[in-house]
Amino acid sequence: MKAYKVTVNGNVYEITLEVVNKADIKPVAAAPAPAAAPAPAAAPAPAAAPVAGGLTVTAPMPGTILKVNVQNGAQIKKGDVIMILEAMKMENEIMAPQDGVIGSVNVSNGAAVEAGTVLCTIA
After folding, report:
1. Which residues contact 36 (CB under 8 A, 6 or more apart)?
2. Residue 113 forms beta bridges with which residues?
3. 108 Cβ neighbours under 8 A, 6+ residues apart
4. pTM for this model (two decimals)
């Protein structure tokens, strides 16, 4: 056995190492590569943006439209669930940002959307 002093980040450690016969050493399988860190999430797109003659409701993330709960001309109140967007196996309720009337519905059930896609307009 041999004793050594090792300094790591300014801290001194005393370690002891055992000297072994090379014939006693067994090969070790390579360790699996560490998993890559997940990519940082993109900043979510605004849920609604004003446009001439109304407000647009946009997809906050990429996903699939599971259900459209409104149609053109429907009266809505702030907080009403206007659509269900599935993203990463989670159902996300897209809610009306204000009271109004649906001016247009731009997607249908089963539609794949990207973040920022206009889902509907509110007049």
Report:
1. none
2. 63
3. 65, 68
4. 0.58
Distance CA 115, CA 62 (A): 5
For residue 66, with 0-12 CB atoms within 10 Å meaning exposed, 13-18 middle and 19 or more buried, which class applies? middle
Distance CA 107, CA 98 (A): 20
Strand partners, 91: 86
24 SS3 class: helix
Q: Report d(CA 103, CA 122) in Å as an integer.
A: 5
Rounded Cα–Cα distance for residues 120 and 96 (Å)? 10
CA torsion sign for 37, 38, 42, 47 is negative
- Label residue 16 left, alpha or beta by phi (over 0 means left) and psi (-120 to 50 means alpha): beta
Task: Give the torsion through C-alpha atoms of 94, 97, 98, 103, to 10 deg.
Answer: -60
38: amino acid identity, one letter:
P
Q: What would the pLDDT profile of 59-113 be if each residue is shown by its tens digit?
A: 999 999 999 999 999 999 999 999 999 998 899 999 999 999 999 999 999 999 9
